[in-house]
Amino acid sequence: MSGTAPDGHESGRTQGHPRRWAILVAICAALLVIVVDNTVLNVALPSIAARFEASTAGQQAVLDAYTVVFSGLLITAGALSDRWGRRRAMVAGLVVLGLSSAAAALAWSVWWLVAMRALMGVGAALVMPATLALLVHVFPAHERPRAFAVWGVVASVAMAVGPVLGGALVAAWSWIGAFLVNVPVACGAVVAILRLVPESRDNGARPVDFRSAAWITVGMVALTTAVILAGDGGLSQPAVLVAAPLALLAGAAFLRRQRRTQAPMVDLSLYRDRQFAGGSAAVTIISMGTGSTLFILAQYLQLVRGMDPLQAGLASAPMAAGVVLGSYAGGRAPARIGHRLCVIAGFTATAVGFLFLAALTPHGSYLLAAVGLFLVGGGNGFAGPAVTTTVLGAVPKDRAGLGSALNDTHQQFGVALGVALLGGLVAAVYRARLPGSVPGEARGALAATLDHGAGLPEDSRDAVAAAARTAFTQAQSATMLTAAGCVTVGVVIAALVLRRDAGEAKVPTQRTRCSSRRRRAKRESM
User: Fold this and answer.
1) d(Cα 495, Cα 489) in Å, to the nearest integer?
2) Count of alpha carbons within 13 Å of 303, Cβ hemisphere only?
């Protein structure tokens, strides 16, 4: 998908494009927009819920519309950009993302926001695969590691600072700012790409299989919709009874087509490799655990602890620091302790972080939240490079683009499914823990309950607010424990499935180092 065969080899034989570092800046500007959109909206959700009286399911839909469409179209968009032209695909994607962001800022209902977020996911899917492919095209082989490192740092920082940026934008312009910020950045990236980035395409790329793309996207959207609606109103809802079978039928049709077509979109034989399958399963499961962290914590910080959006964004900064520091350490650690141990250590730190977050109370110390967020972010950052290297290392070099797209798809869909599943768990436990005196229309979300209580007499208002905040914190604890369980499953998969590599085998123990020093000293004395 990245087109490394025709374009990358040619680029490797030359000194690269003369403006390659400026091109890197333009590509990173485009990357910044699509990665920030994954996290910037979490802090704005309480304001959106208050503006549109959105239930927990509505808030989940706003978040998941972007990630589900993004992940569902990544492989198709990569193939399309290889044939159509990568620069053209990036520009088209940025235009779609910018226009849909502007339209989202004019929203009159939560379902309009959901539709616009889905369109933003289409734009992001067009942009993402072309970024690395273009870097391969313009950088010579010996400079690509540095370019990829810059790309990775920008992606990590963008993901981590999203909540802080979201808080600042909501404080300055309300929730609308979280959408409007995309417009000037997307416009600037389009101008820079048109001026600097050369066009490239893979003349030997396979035809785009739109039927497979339709099946996989419909299946992922239907599955996520069924999970969200089931958590909000139970399994017996008509929409759930339609969406769940549709997800199964679409998934079965996709797999059937991959086995029968001569040019499958996904090479299913990759999943027979234990490194690829184990790494993919681990990253999907941990993404499910971490995907809902900021979605839930943003409500806790603002609606339980009483922080404003900017304060809540700043309170999420330990997670950003953990991601950045963990990514830096995780990039170096595999050479010393091996990829398998890096994955196990990083996932274990993340699970411990969730245990800290599960211990939060309505009036407890913020230090507990800070430590938990730092461990969750640091563990993810530390394990990330090793997981990516493990997955892509199992893919033949001529299919590296496909492997990269599949890795991104597993991660993004894990995030979307985590928001759906764990967000549904929060909603279910919250409703169960609320006093029976709270009416049905006020039980959908914490914001709705607090709005209901605000219209009651003072004594009743305080009692309802205290009960609601306690119920939400208990629901949050149950969800964080479940997230810790998800990540623990990822640890077990990594330990049992991933093979030890050379770096892990060479790790010296303290006894080995001492023995080596004694033998060396003995030889010198002789």
Assistant:
1) 10
2) 30
CA dihedral 113, 405, 39, 363 (to 10 degrees): 120
Number of H helices, E strands in the chain: 23, 0
* Predicted TM-score (pTM) of this structure: 0.74
pLDDT digits (tens, 9 = 90+) for 504-515: 544 444 444 455
> Residue 425 is encoded by which pair of tokens?
């768990």
**Which H or E element spans position 227?**
helix 210-233
Phi/psi at 501 (5° precision): -110, 180
What's the pLDDT tens digit per position in 397-430?
Answer: 555 556 667 777 787 778 777 877 888 888 888 8
Tokens 């088209």 found at: 92
Alpha-carbon gap, residue 238 to 11, rounded angstroms: 55
Per-residue three-class SS string for 440-460:
HHHCCCHHHHHHHHHCCCHHH
Sign of CA dihedral 276, 280, 286, 291: positive
CA–CA gap between residue 279 and residue 389 (Å, rounded): 9
Query: In terms of DSSP H, where are the helices of 266-365?
Result: 274-291, 293-299, 309-315, 317-332, 334-337, 339-358
Q: CB within 8 A of 290, min separation 6: which ones? A: 350, 376, 380, 415, 418, 483, 487
Listed in order, strand segments (DSSP E) in 385-486 are none
Could you tell me the end-to-end alpha-carbon distance of the chain, in angstroms, rounded to an integer? 61
CA atoms within 13 A on the CB side of 524: 6
- Tell me if 481 sits within 8 A of 354, measured CB to CB: yes
State the average pLDDT over residues 272-276: 81
